[in-house]
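for the writeup, i need someone to sanity check this before i put it in the appendix. the sequnce is what the collaborator sent (i think, or maybe the updated version? ugh). structure was predicted straight from it, no edits. if anything looks off just tell me and ill rerun, i have time this weekend
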Amino acid sequence: MNVLLVYAHPEPQSLNGSLKTFSIQHLKAAGHEVKVSDLYAMQWKATLDADDSTAEPGARFDPSRDSQHAFAQGLQSMDITLEQEKLRWADTVILQFPLWWFSMPAILKGWVERVYAYGFAYGVGEHSDSRWGDRYGEGTLAGKRAMLIVTTGGWESHYAARGINGPIDDILFPIQHGILHYPGFDVLPPFVIYRTGRIDEARFAQISHALGQRLDNLGQTAPIPFRRQNAGEYDIPALTLKPDIAPERVGFSAHIES
């Protein structure tokens, strides 16, 4: 299996740094091919702007239009093109990051904004009264798997169904459903590590063992059963669930098959 690890933490000697090293070694020992995008080490440019295209700048910068033109005409900056090639190569993509202010670090969000070009990860497929593009389960990255490895200083109970921070599945929904499922990934349940400030050698050994098991089963783990946009459960083009689909449910959970 070809595995791409997109990693976002600024300190190599952190818990995240140790987990990244463990994951790479474990995957390679199991016979997988591994590529790593260490965004801080790469000094990844996080801002989406006119410099992402080698074309002559227009009168005004239009993120979608300029992204579409650069992708279609082969005018993207080389760092974007190289990351897109990694995504095409990968069978499985792992995003690893600390949960900062209820989301991913800005450098990883910037990776998504720049690499997910119009025509590469969105804006593809037929848009009509019966179909609204190839997305949410379809698209250019369909057939690939993805998983999050997330660390957080909060307790697991803080992210429980009635926890003060809100359920972890709700917090990660925009990433798992919107960033990963949208362009077609089958999204595996996340691997979340809580109370990162309270990890000693014994607990790190337990975490590593559990992570190793998850990595060993990347190809067999059942993905989160997100509903597919064009499978008949949504009214198009309104893109709302049909009245007979989970009528008692609203919010994020309504878009996951029970």
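The chain has seven helices and eight strands. The first helix runs from residue 15 to 29.
thx in advance!!
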